[in-house]
Structures are given as C-alpha cells and as structure tokens.
C-alpha cells in the first residue's frame, strides 16, 4: 500500500488534479462540510489512478486541506506517475 499527500481546494468552479513534486492538488466543487470535499477528492483521485474508489481511503487530515490518502495495491511512485497521466 502506498500513500500520497493531497492538497484539497473545496468550492472550486471546476474539478481538476495536478501533481507538483510529491503532492497532488485536487480542486473539487463540494463544500468542506460533513466530509463532502474529502469524499469527492477520494473519488477524483481514484478515477485519475484508474482504480475503484474502494481502494482509496483517507488516512489522515479529515478536517484539514492537506490530507493523506492510502491506496491499496500501488506504491507511491506509481501513484504519482499515474496521477500525472503517465
């Protein structure tokens, strides 16, 4: 299992995912209440990685913009490469 640090920006006009170094930035439309932004970020990350959302879980940062997600079956380098589109 690999982990990835994600910077979530809630209430964005559009959804997007960018990678800068070892940090993934995800812009989501959801508001940061009741875990909605975290859940949307989890789904966006899973889609970018080409895996089922059930394989991505929030490890820490539930109430923070900076979160750590754990991805089962992938190492950190593979996660970052897939998130960049490669």
Provide structural commentary.
- The protein is α+β, with helices and mostly antiparallel strands and 86 residues long.
- The protein has one domain: Conserved Hypothetical Protein Mth637, Chain: A (2-Layer Sandwich), CATH 3.30.1200.10.
- It has helices spanning 36-49, 76-83; strands spanning 2-9, 16-20, 23-27, 56-60, 66-71.
- The longest helix is centred in the middle third of the chain and has 14 residues, at 36-49.
- It starts with a strand and ends with a helix.
- The mean pLDDT is 95.
CATH class assignment:
Alpha Beta
Q: What low-confidence regions span 5 or more consecutive residues with pLDDT below 50?
A: none
Sheet bearing the most strands, described?
Answer: 5 strands, mixed
The protein's oligomeric status is single chain
Tell me the distance between the termini.
19 Å
Give the helix level as a range of percent: 25-40%
SSE string: EEEHEEH
Give the count of helical stretches.
2
Shape annotation: globular
> Which whole number gives the mean pLDDT?
95
CATH topology: Conserved Hypothetical Protein Mth637, Chain: A
Structural class: alpha+beta
Instruction: Spell out the CATH superfamily.
Output: YggU-like
How large is the share of residues in beta strands?
25-35%
Number of strands: 5
Overall tally of structural domains? 1
Kindly report the spatial arrangement of strands forming the biggest sheet: 2-3-1-5-4
CA gyration radius, whole angstroms = 11 Å
